[in-house]
Amino acid sequence: MLGSKFFKLQKPIFAMVFSRKAQGALEYLLIIGVAILIVVIVIVALSGVVGDTKDKNSVSDYDSQFDKLQDLQKKPDGSGSNDSIAEIISFKVDGTNGLIQEQNIFVILPYGTNLDNLPVEIDAIGVVNPNDSEIDFVLNSKKIFTVTSIDNKIQKDYSVVINYSPPVDEDPPVVNLISPTYDEKIYEENFIFEFSVNDNSSINNCKLLLNSDEYYTWNNISSGTYQKVVNLLGYEGTNMWGVICVDSRNNSSELVNGSFEVIFNNDSAQVVFLSIGGYGGNIQNDSVQITLPGGTSLQDLPFNVVVENGTISPNNSRMSFSLGVPKNFTLISDDYTQQRNFSVTVNYLPGGVLGDYTIISSCQDLQNIDKKLNGKYKLMSDIDCAGFNFKPIGGNTGFSGYFNGNGFKIKNLSINNRNFNLSCVGLFGILKGEVRNLKVVGGNMAGYYSSSGGATLGGIAGRQDAGSLIINSSFDGVLQSKWNTGGIAGESSGTILNSYSSGHFYSGYYASKSSWLSIGGIVGHQKSGGVVKNCYSSAKVESTAGASNYTQQAAGLIGRSYGLIEDSYSYGQVLGPSASTSVYVLRGLVAADYNNNFYGTVVDSYWDKTTSGRNTSAGGVGLTTSEMKIASNFSDWNNEVWEVGNNNYPKLINICGDGYCNSLIDENCSTCPGDCGNCSLPYTIYNLYSCWDIMSISDFTGMYILMNDVNCASEGLENFEPIGSYNNEFKGFFYGNGYSINNLKIDSSTSFVGLFGALKGALISGVVLKDVEIKGENLVGGIAGSADSSSTIQYSLVTGKINSNGVIAGGLTGTGGEIINCYSDVKIN
Q1: Top-confidence residue, 402 or 332
Q2: CA dist list (Å): 475 to 7, 366, 409, 493, 502
Q3: Backbone dihedral angles phi then psi of residue 610, each to the nearest 5 degrees
Q4: Residue 808 Cα to chain centre, angstroms
Q5: What is the pLDDT of residues 119-156, one digit of tens each?
Q6: Which of 510, 507, 533 is nearest to 522 (CA)?
């Protein structure tokens, strides 16, 4: 062999070279004629397969002929190369008295034929012993062919014919398994099996085998990749699979095997349903097992729990679960005299629901958003940021991504801008993207900037830029700054929809600026192009001390507006120090400047003149508390967004927006939406998230559910006002839901003092008051100052201190009521 590109053929070879000594001119011419005739016949028979047999004694002639043959081997379009041209390197014939003759012979085969794979036979006419003849071939190279004649006197032409036959491919098909990979775990019921096959000829069939059984056969196919969807029911556990193929020459591939494991064992979570009826009703526990396909992590999935066989609206019953952790929620039966069975259907989205979202499951995850400010993020559970030194997301750069709170809460978010010295402070410093379905609960943010200045401060965003969106979101907590401050955004040029705020918001002056300072329940300063629609605020808005060269505007909804306010309202207090009207502008819904100029637009929006303490506003309509609870006053509002009824403020129907929320009833919704037939439940349900929410209770016949632990001290509520009074008792239902109210402080000089001033026909259940400090004149108690005989307090607890200047005080109540399974550890003076 001459190298890796060469192959040597010694057998089979039949070579005959003939030479005769001419005896006479006639015989000599006859021989030459015969030889020429043979050459012609061979050339015609091979149709171009045989090379030129003329003498080519010069190198230039040889090169010319070789190039010409190369051209013959190109594709019809002129492309390609001479990969099917080979030339004989050497051919030696030993004789006794012959002549040495140089002759160049080319071997040409049809385009695309690979000589490496072809056997070659050589035919020659003469007396040469075939055993003395050998030929080597190489592709794409030029070599000289030498023939030694037995006649050393006369040069002769010699012909060499190369006959070839198609190769016999003995190689079997090659099979490669693609999916499932070896030992892959499969959780789907239907799975795509995939393999590839490669062969030089056509393939008769390929068989897919599962555990040695034939599952499917492909017939009459060619090389390529093939798939089959396999239903794996009945294949739980470890299995083998393989593919075997047979080609058209009956060559069979090896059986290529792989293994896979099918897992249909279900993850599950147990949900405990506590059905609480009115007093005299029955408490019922139903355990419901919820399952998902194996391998699905429950903590990664949102759930929509649909409650049937009752009067509860499916859209108002929602839960979230963590794997293996029981959760409680409350079902209100329409039958107070009998136990009822409730069926629960869990609709879930498969794992793909996460899509390209980054999942946020901790406060550190939330902070890590700073690493990619244009990403997509989703909350999959409540997260608690207590004790975390949180820096506003995006700082002064801004967040341009997408954040879906998924109906979950960020709790106890604390921000102290003295640590960061940013000009815009909030969960997001500057919002340029979209935030939806988010609740920030128990937030405490201080927007102080440098030594004496203040940052723009908002519960969701410090500054909301044009083109950005906040929808179906809320903030509850305390905000303190010396510049523009709002419950949702400090400044906004963007759009805020279907959102609300509660808590206590302070803003004071920045002495080095001669400008405007604005504070509002939703937005402090709404700029041109900004939109606030379908929003409300119950927050206490307070403008603190200022200077004569500094105008402070405070209002229940928007401090200062150059944009649009539509279908919105406020009912929180609006407070400010005694000062000249040229310095302080305090209004109900929205404030004008000190010259009473107003540049915004207000459509169908209202404020409560009674609770706000403000009779005027730059826009909107002022109503008394009783008028705010008359449904006909809001007849132009969208009933798909608002639930408007008598005896209560309008409430947003679905604050989370996308149908996957984590609370039983996400916003204050009636138990009888639409036409529910005979409905005996007299309550409207309200959810409570803060001490301020609790103190803001105004519908004394409603049902209230505490949705998380609250801390009145950390919320800045230093003197709680009791719910209800001697002449206006609380007659509804209050459910503590297993959460606690901490550090409740009341300092009153009147009687009927407690969490509730007075109860009449009320049910108080599961209320936990820790470390109370309550002071009153007479009839003082932790739960209630007074309760009549038709009121019930059950499964409740009080710890702390109670002081009374009179003679009637108690750990739970000052007097009266039916007390069941309760406990108190209170020091009474």
Answers
A1: 402
A2: 83, 17, 10, 19, 6
A3: -70, -55
A4: 58
A5: 444 433 333 333 334 444 333 333 333 444 444 333 33
A6: 533
Question: Which two structure tokens, joined as six digits, stand for 550?
Answer: 């500094």
- Yes or no: say if 630 and 618 are a contact pair by the CB < 8 Å rule: no
Cβ neighbours for 730, distance < 8 A, ≥ 6 positions apart = 697, 700, 723, 724, 756, 757, 758, 759, 760, 762
List, in order, residues 6 or more apart from 805 with CB less than 8 Å away: 776, 777, 778
Output the CA–CA distances (angstroms, integers) from residue 617 to 540, 557, 567, 608, in the order listed.
16, 11, 16, 11
In contact, 210 and 177? CB cutoff 8 Å: no
Residue type, 73: Q
User: Which pLDDT does position 814 carry in this prediction?
Assistant: 87
For 371, residues 6+ apart whose C-beta sits below 8 A from its C-beta are none
Q: Which residues make Cβ contacts (< 8 Å) with residue 378, sequence separation at least 6?
A: 354, 357, 358, 359, 360, 403, 404, 405, 406
Both tokens assigned to 675: 């036409």
Phi first, then psi, for residue 671 (nearest 5°) are: -80, -10
Tell me what pLDDT residue 264 has: 64
- SS3 annotation, 769-829: EEEEEEEECCCEECCEEEECCCCEEECCEEEEEEEECCCCEECCECCCCEEECCEEEEEEC
In this structure, which CATH number among 2.160.20.110, 2.30.110.10, 2.102.10.10, 3.20.20.140 belongs to the domain 356-634? 2.160.20.110
pLDDT of residue 290: 44
Q: Are strands 818-820 and 784-787 parallel, antiparallel or unpaired?
A: unpaired
pLDDT digits (tens, 9 = 90+) for 414-464: 998 888 888 899 999 999 999 999 999 988 888 776 555 678 899 999 999
HSE-CB of 264 using CA atoms within 13 angstroms: 10
Q: Report the alpha-carbon distance of residue 636 to residue 650 in Å, rounded.
A: 12
pLDDT at residue 3 greater than cutoff 50: no
Burial 109-136 (b: 16+ CB within 10 A, else e): bebebebeebebebebbbebebeebbbb
Q: Is 203 or 6 the better-scoring residue by pLDDT?
A: 203
Class of domain 174-262: mainly beta
The overall average pLDDT reported for the chain is 70
| Residue pair 589/619 in contact by the 8 Å Cβ criterion | yes
State the amino acid at position 804 in one-letter form.
Answer: S
Give yes or no for a cis peptide into 180 (omega within 30° of 0).
yes
Model's pTM, two decimal places?
0.44
Among residues 537, 544, 704, 554, the alpha carbon closest in space to that of 608 is found at 537
Which candidate, 519, 474, 475, 520, places its Cα nearest to that of 499?
Answer: 474
**For residues 664 and 332, what is the distance between their CA atoms, to the nearest angstrom?**
11
- Rounded to whole angstroms, the Cα distance separating 155 from 153 reads 7
Q: Cα separation of 726 and 132, whole Å?
A: 130
Please give the single-letter amino acid code of residue 643.
E
The pLDDT, as a whole number, for residue 33 is: 62
Q: pLDDT tens digits, residue range 636-646?
A: 898 888 988 88
β pairing state of 809-810 and 780-781: parallel
Q: Where are the domains of the chain?
A: 7-164, 174-262, 276-352, 356-634, 670-828
User: For residue 355, what pLDDT is reported?
Assistant: 43
Give the pLDDT band of residue 34 (cuts 50, 70, 90). low
As a whole number of angstroms, the distance between CA 305 and CA 664 comes to: 9
